[in-house]
Design brief:
Layout: E1 2-4, E2 19-20, E3 30-33, E4 38-42, E5 47-51, E6 57-61, E7 74-79, E8 84-88, E9 93-97, E10 103-108, E11 113-118, E12 122-127, E13 136-140, E14 145-149, H1 155-159, E15 165-170, E16 173-178, E17 181-188, E18 193-198, H2 207-213, H3 218-222, E19 224-231, E20 237-243, E21 248-253, E22 263-265, E23 270-272, E24 278-283, E25 291-296
Parallel strand pairs: 1-18
Antiparallel strand pairs: 2-25, 3-4, 4-5, 5-6, 7-8, 8-9, 9-10, 11-12, 12-13, 13-14, 15-16, 16-17, 17-18, 19-20, 20-21, 21-22, 23-24, 24-25
């Protein structure tokens, strides 16, 4: 298993006016792009939205409830050239839609799920399985679980409900980052781990040490949570996080360079645009609380 610590310094420049999402969207839990549209899963309203690239609302799907193709607690989404998939944490299911937001299929995965990756033949789901203690699962399109993989969840994480994170796919590899521990595990499509990428100084990795030492002021030191994770088409890794005081940061990993880890401050949760450009998600600063996507440049 390889170990990577290759990082480039991030320079941030605003390249264009922010995209202001329609004011009907009050909680952009996850955002994805196609060439024509922006898709947003809103966990507060339990709605899936389709917008144009200027942020204007085009269509929505807001069926709430316990029935087929209804939402209970939306989390993250995944997009391919022909479909949109959303993870419903409350119903323990995945729901697949056409780009026109017409439901096609619901797959019951039997566990609270927070993120997913769509492949032509299979689905990869992020969710805690209490039997195996593992969080990454591969399902067939018919809903059969094929394999669970990754390290079993640590008892401390399970005790504090730290059962969340992010999945991404690039070049037929699955990337997983735990929301409360800065470590990116990389797997092939069969679940074999092929790499681990870490940042030794990231405070979220000190959770076990803090409790073992019995420090009284552990919360401020421990509470670093991942807020966004993306893998660019060229293989660059982008991890945004915040601390207890709501300060926001971005760690940037570029495969082509060999510089140490660097941190850029004041960066909101990151998402990738339709052409692989980096966008940060944040509330507008004019008092309207409209959600903006601000383009930033990596150097």
């Amino acid at each position: 298993m390889g170990h990577s610590t290759l990082i480039a310094l991030l320079g941030i420049l605003s390249l264009s006016p922010p995209i202001r999402l329609d004011k009907a969207i009050n909680s952009a839990g996850d955002i994805g792009f196609t060439r024509q549209h922006i898709f947003v899963s809103d966990g507060n309203s339990n709605c899936l939205y389709q917008l144009d690239h200027t942020g204007v609302l085009m269509s929505s799907y807001c069926q709430r409830g316990q029935g087929p193709e209804e939402f209970q607690k939306l989390r993250y989404l995944a997009i391919t050239e022909s479909e949109v998939g959303v993870a419903d944490f409350g119903k323990r299911s995945l729901i697949l839609f056409s780009h026109d937001l017409v439901p096609r299929q619901e797959i019951r995965v039997g566990m609270p799920c927070s993120d997913l990756v769509l492949m032509p033949d299979d689905l990869f789901v992020l969710g805690f399985d209490p039997k195996t203690k593992k969080m990454i699962h591969r399902f067939s399109r018919s809903g059969k679980k094929l394999v669970s993989f990754g390290d079993p969840l640590k008892p401390m994480d399970e005790m504090f409900g730290m059962q969340s994170g992010f999945l991404a796919v690039q070049d037929r590899k699955i990337y997983f980052v735990h929301a409360f521990r800065f470590r990116i595990d990389v797997f092939d499509l069969h679940g074999k781990q092929v790499d681990t990428i870490t940042h030794p100084g990231f405070p979220g990795t000190l959770l076990d040490d803090v409790f073992r030492k019995g420090e009284l002021n552990w919360w401020n030191d421990m509470y670093q949570v991942i807020t966004g994770f993306a893998v660019s088409p060229s293989g660059d890794l982008l991890v945004s996080y915040r601390n207890f005081r709501e300060n926001r940061f971005l760690l940037y990993h570029r495969e082509q360079t060999k510089t140490p880890w660097k941190v850029q401050s004041d960066v909101g949760p990151v998402v990738l645009g339709p052409n692989g450009e980096l966008l940060q998600k944040r509330s507008s600063k004019d008092g309207s609380d409209v959600i903006e996507l601000k383009r930033i440049d990596l150097k």
